[in-house]
Amino acid sequence: MIEMKNVIKKYANGVIAANGIDVKINQGEFVYVVGPSGAGKSTFIKMMHREEKPTQGTILINGVNLAKLKNSKVPLLRRNMGVVFQDFKLLPTLTVYENVAFALEVIEENPKLIKKRVMEVLGLVGLKHKARMLPTELSGGEQQRVSIARSIVNSPKLVIADEPTGNLDPETSWEIMNIFEEINNRGTTIVMATHNKEIVNTIRHRVIAIEGGRIVRDEQRGDYGYEG
């Protein structure tokens, strides 16, 4: 599903955030991306949904080369993946329902299907009863659940998460992880950058460790491998 070949990313300030990355991720996998701050994890994640373009190399998502993808085609690419951020990125003037529905409205999906699908995913994340509330009326954990619901409402094959539990308390973090586990069990590929050592060491999945823009470790059912 995902393949990177000799990927290099050099920023204008001279920082090399990806330095010869080669990796394959198969459909249905759950992959943690770990490493110290500034190691290149966020760049690794951002290149997958074309927020950043590689300076050199090939990135294939379902056979599409992101390095050569025209900017006009990027929205179509992103319709087939979900992205979850640390800071939620919800639209503050829209209700929970409207935030999730928006992802389907922009692709002009049938209104009846939108209502059915939005309520399904809100049920999955346990927020049906808060569908009419605004993001400001929710806790941080609830806002992150809305963000997850929005990311999966169009049934993507891939969900990319960048520190999705970074702003949450431990109990809420486990609740969010249970949702990701359920999504993965339904066949969705998940790639998650995280600093949460306890989660990585408890809910075992493949671990890709990045340091200095390079993959230094790639283990099935790996551990976090860093202090803190």
From TrEMBL:
Please report the record's description of how this protein sits within the membrane. Peripheral membrane protein
Q: What is its main location?
A: membrane
One Gene Ontology cellular component term attached to this UniProt record is: plasma membrane
The Gene Ontology terms for molecular function here are: ATP binding; ATP hydrolysis activity; transmembrane transporter activity
Subcellular location per UniProt equals: Cell membrane
Q: Which SUPFAM superfamilies match?
A: P-loop containing nucleoside triphosphate hydrolases (SSF52540)
**Which Pfam families has this protein been placed in?**
ABC_tran
Q: Which PROSITE patterns match?
A: ABC_TRANSPORTER_1, ABC_TRANSPORTER_2
Stretches assigned to coiled coil: none
Q: Which GO terms describe its biological process?
A: cell division
Q: Which residues form the ABC transporter domain?
A: 2-227
The superkingdom of the source organism is: Bacteria
Relate the protein's function as given in its record.
Part of the ABC transporter FtsEX involved in cellular division.
Family the UniProt entry places it in? Belongs to the ABC transporter superfamily.
Q: Give the quaternary structure.
A: Homodimer. Forms a membrane-associated complex with FtsX.
The protein depicted here goes by the name: Cell division ATP-binding protein FtsE
Q: Which organism is it from?
A: Niallia taxi
